[in-house]
Amino acid sequence: MTPGQETQTRKCYLFNPGLIPYTDGWLWQRSLVNDRIHYPNLHDVLILLEHPPVYTLGQGSNPEFLQFDLNQTKFDVHTVERGGEVTYHCPGQVVGYPILNLRYYRQDLHWYLRQLEEVLIQVLAVYRLSGDRLPGFTGVWLQGRKVAAIGIKVSRWITMHGFALNVCPDMSGFQQIIPCGIADKPVGSLAQWIPGITCEEVRPHIARCFAEVFGVELVEA
Hints:
seven-stranded mixed sheet, alpha/beta, about 25% helix
């Protein structure tokens, strides 16, 4: 860190690529992380996108949380390096991939997870909805329904993966899994409280709340 850098607002590139295949987003993240491991002065990145229907399992996920045979399935399934159990992505869900160098923030993974939750809680507050944390769990709940899942990977304090906010997805895909391994807490979406809500209108609120919570200046890329 150069003299005086700590007093400057850190820049963060914002990408809004729309709907892209999961593997494309995954490879993109890994490339960005690798670049920042070798060149730590590069700006941070926030990617906000949607994926076609896909199931992802974190490292060490329990296959019992799948309601289908992993060896005989028509579903797109990937095991990835993030923490957490199985989750589902599909159109109508805003997925956020922050690529941050935590050396410029706080080298504390619990702090980082709580910050991601805070971003989403502030987004819900825009719509006068009160998002909750549940002790012992990661994510954001709304009136007992989990509306946002979080799973991260950190390499040399560079983050990847991130959060998924259910805005207006087809919820039927969640019936094939026990989301995040939590059997007794249902999944929800913002559309259940705000009919007609779209990802297009929510993305700018996510970007603004992210910038405020992390104290960065977003630069559209």
